Structures are given as C-alpha cells and as structure tokens.
Amino acid sequence: MEAYRVEKRVAANGVVHLNALPFREGELVEIIVLSQKEAVRKSAPSPLRGKVIEYINPTEPVAQDDWELLR
If we measure between CA atoms, which residue out of 18, 16, 7, 11 comes closest to residue 41? Predict the structure, then answer.
C-alpha cells in the first residue's frame, strides 16, 4: 500500500479538493479524513524540514574500527 499525505483546509461548504495525486487514472484508493487540531500541529514541528542535509560518503561503513569481530 502506497501512502500519500497532504494537509488541506475544509472549504465553507465542507468540500476538500485534492489535485495532482500521484496515482494512476482508474486506480482504486482509500481515503481517510482525520481532523488535526491547531495546537497539535504547532507543538510538534519537523525540526529538519527546510534544512540542508549533506551526506559525505553515504555508503562507507560507520565506526568500522569499533567492531572487534572485524579486526
């Protein structure tokens, strides 16, 4: 099962529009709508959102010298 998360505000008439979904035309999807309280969103921010992340040698072993079995 592939999940796709998006936050939208409900319009005055109770309608929520979803555009450009990453699914194929005719694909069967399940839609679950959960209410999200304003205080919960503000108290649990994503601390790394918007931060630059750089991986230096991402495939190299980490702390290889610390393993006695490899010596």
Answer: 7
pLDDT band per the 50, 70, 90 thresholds, residue 28: very high
| CA–CA separation, 42 and 46 (whole Å) | 10
Question: pTM of whole model > 0.90?
Answer: no
Question: CB-based burial of residue 67 (10 Å sphere; 0-12 exposed, 13-18 middle, 19+ buried)?
Answer: exposed
The number of residues in the chain equals 71
Please enumerate, as own/partner, the contacts of 9-18 that have beta carbons within 8 Å and a separation of 24 or more.
Answer: none
